[in-house]
Design brief:
- This protein is α+β, with helices and mostly antiparallel strands.
- The chain is about 25% helix and about 30% strand.
- The protein starts with 14 loop residues before the first strand and ends with a strand.
- Bound molecules: 2-OXO-4-methylpentanoic acid.
C-alpha cells in the first residue's frame, strides 16, 4: 500500500519567525547523542489562538520561549488543559515521517470536547507539526529507537475566576528529541496494583488526555515507588478488581507460547485512554499471526494465570516507551512473577515489528506512516 503524503493535505498557513540565535550544531549534536526523554527542546514552537469572535487565528512558528499568563487564567485554576504525544522518525535515507498523526488529531479533539474546549482543525494540528518539524528538521535524531517527540497541547486562557469553559484558548506545539523513555532501557518493570486510588471512573475523564488525569496519578505512582515498584497499575473504580492501565500506558496480556500464543488487552470501557500504540498492536499481532482481542481480566485471574503458567507475558504500551515488559506484580493480595520475570518472546517480537514499521525498516502495509520531509 502506498503511504499518503501529508504534502497532499491542505495545511493551515503558519507565519514563521526564525530563532535569532539557534542552538549551535555542536551543542545539538551533543544533545542528540544522548537525548533521554523530555529533557531538551528544539529551537522553535508553534502557537495559535482561538476566540469566539475570530475562531482560530494568529498561527505562528516562533522561537521556543516562556509563556506569560495572568495569574487568574482559567487553566491555572480549573485545569482546562489537554495534550497529545506523537513522534517523528528519521528513516535511513534521511526522510522524516510521522506515525498515524490523524489518530492523534482525532483524539486531541475528543479530549477537547470532553473538557468543553474549542476543537482544533486537522489542518492546523497537522500544519503546526509540518511547520515545526520542517523548521527544526536537524533536531530529528537518526538511528536506534530515537525520534523527535512532538507535544501538541491546548490551554483555556480566559482570565477570570468564574467556573465555566474559557472563551479563549491557546494551542501550542513543542518538540523534544527522544531516546528511550525508561532510563533502564528494555528492562521489565515491577508494578504496584493500586487499590487506594483510581485513575478514572465511568463518566469521568479517563478517555481524555487531560493534564488532570496525570496530576491525579502522581500520588499512586509515589505509593508504587514506596512499595519498591516502577509503575502503578490501575483497577476499575467500581469493584477495584478489573485491570485497566499501567501509569500512562495501556496493558497487554499474553496467554500461551509459540504458535498457541494469543493476546488480550483490556477493552475501552470509557475509563481507559484509547492508545494509538494499543490500537496498532491489535493489527501488528495479526500481521505476525498472533490472535489478539479486547477483553477483561481481574486481579485474581492475573495472579492465578501466572501461577498456572497460562499467562506467559504481560507488557505495557504507549507512544513514549513503545512496548515495555512487566516482570513482577506487587499488591495487597500478594506478589507474583510474570513468566520468568524477563522480557518475553512475544513482547519483544511485537515491539520490534512495530519499531520496524515506524523506523522504515519494513514496508508500511497499513498506510500508517506519513512522509513529512523528503530525503
Ligand atoms: C504515552 O506514552 O503515550 C504517554 O502518554 C506518556 C507521556 C505522558 C510521557
Amino acid at each position: 500500500m502506498t503511504s499518503p503524503s501529508l504534502a497532499d493535505t491542505h495545511l493551515w498557513p503558519i507565519t514563521a519567525t526564525p530563532h535569532p540565535s539557534p542552538t549551535t550544531p555542536e551543542r545539538r549534536a551533543e544533545i542528540l547523542a544522548n537525548p533521554g526523554f523530555g529533557q531538551h527542546y528544539t529551537d522553535h514552537m508553534v502557537r495559535a489562538t482561538w476566540t469566539a469572535d475570530e475562531g482560530w487565528h494568529g498561527a505562528e512558528l516562533v522561537p521556543y520561549q516562556p509563556l506569560t499568563f495572568d495569574p487568574a487564567t482559567n487553566f491555572l485554576h480549573y485545569g482546562q488543559a489537554i495534550f497529545e504525544g506523537m513522534k517523528a522518525y528519521r528513516h535511513a535515507d534521511g526522510s522524516i515521517w510521522l506515525y498515524r498523526p490523524l489518530k492523534n488529531a482525532t483524539r486531541f479533539n475528543n479530549s477537547a470536547r470532553r473538557l468543553a474546549m474549542a476543537e482544533v482543525p486537522e489542518e492546523l494540528f497537522i500544519g503546526s507539526i509540518a511547520a515545526l518539524v520542517s523548521a527544526d528538521r536537524d533536531w530529528v535524531p537518526s538511528g536506534g529507537e530515537t525520534s523527535l517527540y512532538l507535544r501538541p497541547f491546548m490551554l483555556g486562557t480566559e482570565v477570570g475566576l468564574g467556573v465555566r469553559p474559557s472563551n479563549t484558548y491557546t494551542y501550542l506545539l513543542i518538540a523534544s528529541p527522544a531516546g528511550a523513555y525508561f532510563s533502564k532501557g528494555i528492562h521489565p518493570v515491577t508494578v504496584w496494583l493500586s487499590d487506594d486510588y483510581v485513575r478514572a471512573a465511568p463518566g469521568g475523564t479517563g478517555e481524555a488526555k487531560c493534564a488532570g488525569n496525570y496530576a491525579a496519578s502522581l500520588i499512586a505512582q509515589a505509593e508504587a515507588a514506596q512499595h519498591g515498584c516502577d509503575q502503578v497499575v490501575w483497577l476499575d473504580a467500581a469493584e477495584h478488581r478489573w485491570i485497566e492501565e499501567m501509569g500512562g500506558m495501556n496493558l497487554y496480556f499474553v496467554y500461551g507460547t509459540g504458535d498457541q500464543a494469543r493476546l488480550m488487552t483490556p477493552s475501552l470501557t470509557g475509563a481507559l485512554l484509547p492508545g494509538v500504540t494499543r490500537d496498532s498492536l491489535l493489527t501488528v499481532a495479526q500481521d505476525l499471526g498472533i490472535k489478539a482481542e479486547e477483553g477483561r481480566i481481574s486481579v485474581e485471574e492475573w495472579k492465578a494465570g501466572c501461577a498456572s503458567g497460562e499467562i506467559t507475558e504481560v507488557f505495557a504500551c504507549g507512544t513514549a516507551a513503545v512496548v515495555t515488559p512487566v516482570g513482577e506484580v506487587k499488591s495487597r493480595m500478594g506478589n507474583w512473577t510474570v513468566g520468568n520475570g524477563g522480557a518475553g518472546e512475544v513482547t519483544m517480537r511485537l515491539r520490534q515489528a512495530l519499531l520496524d514499521i515506524q523506523t522504515g525498516a519494513v514496508p508500511d502495509r497499513h498506510a500508517w506512516m506519513h512522509k513529512i520531509i523528503d530525503a
